[in-house]
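Troubleshooting log. The previous structure file for this entry was overwritten by mistake, so regenerating from the original sequence record. Sequence copied from the archived sheet and checked twice against the printout by T.R.
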Amino acid sequence: MLLVSGTAFSSHQRPVVKTALIRPYFLYFWPMQSFEELSKKFSAHFDRSHFPEQPASLYEPNNYFLSLGGKRFRPVLCLMANELLGEIHPDAWHVATAIELFHNFTLIHDDIMDKAPLRRGQPTVHSKYNEPTAILAGDVMLVKAYDYITKLGPEFIPRILTLFNKTAAEVCEGQQYDMDFELRDNVSYEEYLHMITLKTSVLLAASLQMGGILGGGSLGNLALLYEAGKKIGLAFQMQDDYLDAFGDPEKFGKQPGGDILSNKKTFLLIQALEVANAAQKQELRDLLNGNAADKVARVLQLYRDCKIDEWAIAQKDLFLNDALRYIEEIAVLAKRKQPLKDLALLLVKRDY
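Regenerated output below.
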């Protein structure tokens, strides 16, 4: 039995504590869970069929794609932000599910646009089935994500739906910018940063903020959660680009230089083209326009000559430190913020 403001509550009840004076002490009664703990719980909640049986030709491809798994840290970020402010609200599981379904919708369509044959080492939906089916499968995945949002309490739907829609549009904008950049020889660092923010970071930011909304977070805390998510996303992408070029293939799971072979614009390439001297720029452009057998090795050497490897590590740490600073400023007990800090460090310092 728990006593708060003179009222008794059983261990199964969640009291609504509105006063700022009482709430911090009350939070001691709700221990925070680690990313690993919440990830296991979310997987147990999520790993089931979200679709009807018929037509099987439409829904089986989605079940197949979801069975491939994934990191699923976006929905877990939502749960962690919600728990940061108290006990996890039941509606947080609906929002987390919607976030994961939306993310997988974007992956199905991204694979079509990129003509990617594999995802997580397995055939993509459009290559296993066909492109029209993959388009429809992605579409109905998005519809199902919205279906979970309709399950929320009416007090949450307007704010969550507004943020969800804003984020969905921004992710599409980021993907379009990414495709536009493929047709351009010159893309500035600022343009690329804006694209990655839209394509990657805003979904992490929204995941944290939606969890905070469900937890009754103040406007200040919600803003800090959002900014922390954006910076985590940028640091995560920087680390991804770095590992593709300089990662240990035994840990990263693939040979370095995949982005180089496909001439993909990354943080590393954009920065190299900005800081290289005239001769280095010409050599880099010649390598990008050709298919030399030693293309990866020569591009990597140019990156090292321009100290791009050192720059990437330093820039990633700047993004990470910004994220940790925003988390530190969130007005909750210090010990409750540690799991979120640990996750940020895990995502950014990983070598796989």
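DSSP finds 17 helices and four strands in the chain. Archived copy saved in two places this time.
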